[in-house]
Amino acid sequence: MIIYNGSSSNVIRWISSARHEFLFARTFHAQVGAEWNHIIGNIPNYENGQAKEDRYDFTASVQKKYQRTFFCCRKSASTGGICFSAPFLPYLGTEYEILKSTNQNLKIRGSISKNYRVPTLNDRYWQNAGDKNLLPEASHAGELGVNYQFKTFEISSTFFSQKVDNWIQWVPDALETIVRKTFCRFLHKALKLSSVFVRK
């Protein structure tokens, strides 16, 4: 429970999930799962002071490891509440060791995916800012990275790219009041560089 300016807000959530893992053809590792979320938001700023939602998620994934390559192909689909039906959401990732020895290791990795995000209760029910007719965010993302390790020193570089349709963002307006805005299309690109040195 959160108390702010004399009013209290609380969110109640029930989560039930099930997952099954198994091997087939001796080398493939598979997972299937399902999850149910029941959410009740008792927020004074909501219309009528309350909003309810049920979300269902279904996932399936397959992984295979070769000699120097780790290959992961994941497929998932989900539905958010009774108002939305998610599309098929594939994910494909791979990792390959170019160099491996006693002192050093060099590997590259990459992934591509299709993603989907249902508007939150705040996005839809917040007074004077929420919109019940908001469309879910849909995006395509890609990642490409390289890791190099020499003894106790490790450096990695990763490039990210994501294109989002119906992007939902809360931003302050000219009066410093937080308002919700929706962008038809948003493109985000970033480069991350990190290093780690471990002294023994």
Description:
With 200 residues, the protein is an all-beta fold. The protein has one domain: TonB-dependent receptor, beta-barrel domain (Maltoporin, Chain A), CATH 2.40.170.20. The chain has one helix and ten strands, in the order E-E-E-E-E-E-E-H-E-E-E. The protein has a ten-stranded antiparallel beta sheet. The chain is extended, with a radius of gyration of 22 Å. It starts with a strand and ends with a strand. 8% of the residues are buried.
Rounded to an integer in angstroms, the radius of gyration calculated over CA atoms is 22 Å
CATH class category name: Mainly Beta
Largest sheet: spatial strand order: 1-2-3-4-5-6-7-8-9-10
Annotated CATH homologous superfamily: TonB-dependent receptor, beta-barrel domain
Mean pLDDT comes to: 81
Please mark out the parts with pLDDT under 50 across 5 or more consecutive residues, or reply none. none
Helix content: under 10%
> Whole-Å distance between the termini?
46 Å
Give the count of helical stretches.
1
How many β-strand runs?
Answer: 10
The tally of domains stands at: 1
Beta-strand residue percentage: over 45%
